[in-house]
Amino acid sequence: MKKLLRTVDSFGPTILRLVLGGVILMHGLQKTMGLFGGSGFEGTMKMFTENMKIPYGLAMAAIVTESVGSACLILGFLTRIWALGMVILMGIAVYKVHFANGFFMNWMGNQKGEGYEYHILVIGMALALLALGGGKASLDAGMSGSSRREPKSDKIKA
Fold first, then answer.
1. How distant, in Å, are the alpha carbons of 83, 90, 126 from that of 133?
2. How far is 50 from 41, CA to CA, in rounded Å?
3. Fewer CB near the terminus (10 Å): N or C of the chain?
4. Interval 79-133: pLDDT, tens
């Protein structure tokens, strides 16, 4: 368990998990509480299971990952597990919904839906957290009892 929780002694992953967790939490609150113009839990489950034909368990996993998982990322609790969840969630979203709309977001309103550029950014951030852990000021660092320092780079010699 300590290997799972171990993290680099750096603020880089801290920034990544706070930003990623904060952004995804807003989407989770749309799906769970109906905030920020969202459909709430019942509306989201209906859209996922009836309209998109996603099995109930997978729809629930998506909602939990976006709500509970993002809050856990903000706290730095089980960072690698929730980061992996984000990679899986976004990969499925790209495959199932967004790939058909092309790469770009629908800024001009001339596509049928949103592209997958946002999802690629989330996947990249989550992969970095998988590699590095939660960073400084994470519950993972406190629970593991240690953090590994980033390797110091050699000075460039001219």
1. 9, 19, 10
2. 14
3. C
4. 999 999 999 999 999 998 899 999 999 888 888 889 999 999 999 999 999 999 9
Alpha-carbon gap, residue 119 to 100, rounded angstroms:
13
Q: At what angle do helices 56-64 and 12-33 cross, to 10 degrees?
A: 130
Tell me the per-residue pLDDT of 31-83, one tens digit each, with 9 for 90 and over.
999 999 999 999 999 999 999 899 999 999 999 999 999 999 999 999 999 99
Strand partners, 8: 148
> What is the C-alpha separation between 79 and 14, in angstroms, rounded?
10
> What is the spatial distance between Cα 105 and Cα 16, in angstroms, rounded to a whole number?
22
